[in-house]
Design goal:
The chain has 623 residues and is of the alpha/beta class. Helices cover 52% and strands 9% of the residues. The protein starts with 38 loop residues before the first helix and ends in a 10-residue tail after the last helix. Mean pLDDT is 87; it is low at 416-426, 428-437 and 516-522.
């Protein structure tokens, strides 16, 4: 094409100043009186038991080490175990709170009449498959039109695509789609000449040039798909809560075909429901933002959440990568509520299809989440907002801690005589000693850790009927049990590999060798043996070393599951991308038996648009 296609409404500028992290700020438009919330009570129920359980474990283990005081190595071991145990316990407590909340069977919140809102559906794209994005866009617009209602919606495709071939396909797809849209459906498109500040700059550009005409913006990802009902419920919730600046839905995974993606989708759809409910309870008005499938009050966002550059240790100004957590914190700092409504169903997204694709995305997220540590001391952030940012960083820092704990357990061995780690006493420097920690105690700690890691899954399964989902929806109780056991086995096998991959991401970020953001390969890829070996060399070497230690009697047999997983990292990674035959059916999903109508429509429109752009078919006109 000779020139870029731009189809946009008249500009309506809205100032979006960058915020100052060194000074407090309150938006003059934010309501001063927030409605009462029971979040403090739920927060105490989430944090207190986790703290008590961790302190109890710490007390028992301190007693095990004897009455002669805690030496340096003992202190490191106690710290690692306690820190890891707290976060596991906190997850369990959150799921338990979710179960209690679901069991209460509260009536849905009654929404009072409110003024209709003009809502812009924003879809930022960067080198994405255009017919997939626009097929989803058509589906959402038509579902909204069929539902009706008082609110006004328009879809904006905000392109930062740099690949000329994809850009040409993108523009051809937009032109083709616009010719078939029903009257009254609004689809706009613009492609920036430069993708300055990436997604942050893309959204900011729209806000500053067109934002004044829109009361709210519903930010979508390139793979997002939402029903008209879900969008309408989010809009109603924002319209009826003048103190809300942002309301986040609970995106559930769809479209999984490969072994790894189906495992992720099953976990999200089964275990995630109770966890999300518990999270919503203790967050209250101080929730978080995940960057998509959330509705935001446009003027509040422009006034309160403009992001400055972040000064790095080298003195350079760096873009804030994981912007969503920070934007939620800024909105809350300015006096706006940030809410999470997990009971709004019909909010979907896709998931990476292979282990390597997941690790590539995780590296980008790691870089952004570790940046948040620099913002913890910023002025005006609420305590819970700081916790969200800290928790996001800890999610990645836990992996090096787990690896260190695994290393220390391996070095301790099965007793003082078998210990690989030599610790010399000042009183007896010729003979190595290790703190008194018998095999029974060693095994007990490992068993407790395994049980706590499994507990959220078991609780999530037990909570599923409370959410209105039936085991029969998965093809019957027997098939559900088979899928559950397969997911547990696969998660046990993949967890140590993901631990090592996250540890690598942390060290790459810490030493400045982390590359910038790159487009996610949403369709996955087939990776050759060389790529698999290069990606999983550290896991394989670690697993072989652990296995040798176990076979020689130096390392506890209870570490065998981890050793096997790491040693088999390469074939397991290859298995993760299998999307055909018996391997694909290892984990069954509800969508195998009852696919949502919205996903069927989206798939049909995607295929039609692809054929049309490639000159192989025609679009179905809107009814």
């Amino acid at each position: 094409m000779s020139s870029d296609l731009h189809i946009m409404p008249p500009e309506a500028p809205l100032a979006m100043p960058a915020q100052n992290f060194s000074a407090r700020f309150r938006d003059a438009d934010a309501p001063s009186g927030q409605h009462k919330s029971s979040a403090g009570f739920w927060r105490a129920l989430a944090f207190s038991p986790a703290m008590v359980a961790t302190l109890a474990l710490l007390w028992v283990m301190s007693d095990w080490f004897g009455a002669e005081g805690i030496n340096v190595i003992e202190g490191i071991l106690l710290t690692l175990i306690s820190f890891n145990f707290f976060w596991i316990s906190f997850t369990v407590c959150t799921v338990l709170l979710g179960m209690v909340s679901l069991a209460k069977q509260e009536r849905p919140e009654r929404l009072t009449a409110a003024q209709p809102l003009r809502v812009a559906l924003l879809t930022p794209v960067y080198n994405e498959v255009p017919w997939n994005v626009l097929g989803n866009a058509r589906t959402m617009l038509e579902d909204l039109q069929a539902r009706g209602g008082k609110h006004h919606y328009a879809m904006f495709i905000l392109s930062d695509t740099r690949d000329p071939e994809i850009a040409a396909q993108e523009q051809a797809s937009v032109e083709a789609l616009r010719t078939t849209l029903a009257p009254g459906l609004e689809l706009y498109y613009r492609r920036r000449e430069q993708n300055t500040d990436r997604k942050v700059g893309n959204i900011a550009d729209w806000v500053s040039r067109w934002g004044a005409d829109w009361d709210a913006m519903l930010v979508l990802d390139a793979d997002s798909l939402m029903t008209g009902r879900a969008i309408h419920r989010l809009t109603d919730a924002l319209a009826c809560d003048p103190g809300a600046g942002l309301i986040q839905s609970y995106p559930q995974l769809i479209g999984a075909q490969s072994v790894f993606a189906r495992m992720q989708q099953f976990a999200n759809g089964v275990y995630g429901i109770a966890f999300a409910e518990g999270l919503a309870r203790w967050c209250g008005q101080e929730g978080n933002y995940w960057g998509h499938n959330a509705i935001i009050r446009t003027k509040a966002f422009a006034t309160s959440a403009g992001l400055p550059k972040l000064r790095s240790f080298s003195g350079q100004d760096k873009l804030i990568m994981s912007h969503d957590f920070v934007e939620a914190g800024l909105l809350r700092r300015a006096g706006w509520a940030v809410r999470f409504l997990p009971r709004i169903r019909g909010s979907y997204e896709e998931t990476p299809p292979t282990l390597i694709d997941h690790a590539m995305r995780d590296r980008r997220w790691c870089q952004g989440n570790l940046q948040h540590l620099k913002l913890l001391g910023s002025s005006g952030f609420r305590a819970v907002s700081r916790f969200h940012m800290f928790h996001g960083a800890v999610g990645y820092l836990m992996s090096p801690l787990w690896f260190a704990l695994l290393l220390m357990w391996a070095l301790i061995g099965q007793g003082q005589d078998a210990s690989v780690l030599h610790y010399f006493s000042p009183d007896n420097p010729l003979f190595p000693q290790w703190p008194e920690m018998s095999e029974t105690r060693h095994v007990l700690i490992i068993l407790v850790m395994y049980a706590m890691l499994l507990a959220p899954k078991v609780l999530g399964v037990l909570a599923l009927p409370l959410s209105g989902v039936r085991y029969a929806d998965f093809g019957g109780g027997r098939k559900f049990l088979g899928s559950f056991l397969a997911e547990v086995l696969l998660s046990i096998l993949y967890a140590p590999i993901l631990m090592v991959q996250q540890m690598i991401a942390v060290f790459r970020t810490a030493f400045g060798i982390q590359r910038g953001w790159s487009p996610q390969a949403r369709d996955g890829g087939t990776y050759g043996l060389r790529t698999l070996i290069l990606c999983h060399a550290l896991e394989t070497v670690s697993g072989v070393a652990l296995s040798v230690g176990i076979l020689s009697g130096l390392v506890s047999i209870w570490l065998a599951p981890i050793a096997i997983s790491l040693a088999l990292a390469i074939p397991l990674s290859a298995l993760s991308g299998v999307s055909a035959g018996a391997a694909r059916k290892m984990v069954g999903m509800r969508e195998d038996f009852s696919e949502p109508a919205i996903t069927r429509s989206a798939r049909r429109y995607r295929d039609e648009l692809k054929r049309l752009v490639e000159g192989k078919g025609n679009m179905t006109p809107a009814e």
